[in-house]
Here is the input.
Amino acid sequence: MQSYWMQMTDSATTLELRDSPLPSAGARQLLVRMHAAALNRGEFLLGHGLHGKPGSWKAIGGEGAGEVVVVGAEVTGFHPGDRVMGRCAGAFSEYALMEAAEAMAVPAGLSWEQAASIPLTFLVSFDMLVLQGRLEPGEWLLVNGVSSGVGVASLQLGKALGARVIGTSGSAEKLAALAPLGLDVALCTRKPDFALAVMAATGQHGADLVVNTVGGSVFAENIRALAFEGRLATVGYVDGVVHAEIDLEALHARRLTVFGVSNKLRTKEQRAAAVPRFVAEVLPLIAAGRIQPCIDQVMDFARLPEAKARMEDGAHVGKIVVRMPVAS
Here is the structure.
């Protein structure tokens, strides 16, 4: 089978398309014939530590959708031919292994490309907004870098939960494109200069929950923008800034909560723990069309390097998806 591998050094990333052996489904695993897989910026970013030691090669891809080919031992609820989506390692391949505990049935009417853009991004947003963020109807949600994959998913899930959403982006065009998704307040900036505008938009209340997809360069400004008992989620650092000042007086007096969202150090069981609740609470919203995955562009499998370049240039709004070759 064909599979994309990536080598990451201290200064660059290199993709290579290889002929790789077909993986075998182990206990509690599914072998899936992949139909589509989505890009996530974190796996291409230097310094995120997702690819082992610099210079090593690793099969890449973190989420996708396809058809079950083989059901491993101890698996219940799935059968060959089922349409599934989920987080899985090596998703940029013709075949990939998916942990059965992370696999989800694709809702009827969803395309392979739409299904591939859901698992990782929306599970991360669910973690930030619901599991840790405790977002309530009527609260204010601020999303830094709202046009990113996680940013758009957080906007969509936040609106479905009844929140009012403020989004920042350096592109007025991207912000305008998100207006139909319910973006309440659009702040066109890439700088840490938005706290006063957030306070003004919320009647001096502040943001109840902030999703920081940008990194350390906006961390202190997010603290300034938080409401009393506000929560700040950090999910990435595309700016490359991993250290930031923290106002302990504000943290203390305003009873703030600061937390991170990452699967890097979690066990398989920890990663899968939220899936049943996600299936029960979010998938019905997707199946009913209340949340529609926002896809920027779909490209053929052979164009993954081009898709990667588009993501690294920050030219996308929502998800970039690659379509696998038709099975021979």
Remarks:
- The first strand starts at residue 2 and ends at 8.
- Residues 119-131 form the longest helix (13 residues).
- Residues 217 and 241 are 6 Å apart (CA to CA).
- The chain has two domains: 2-118+293-323, 122-260.
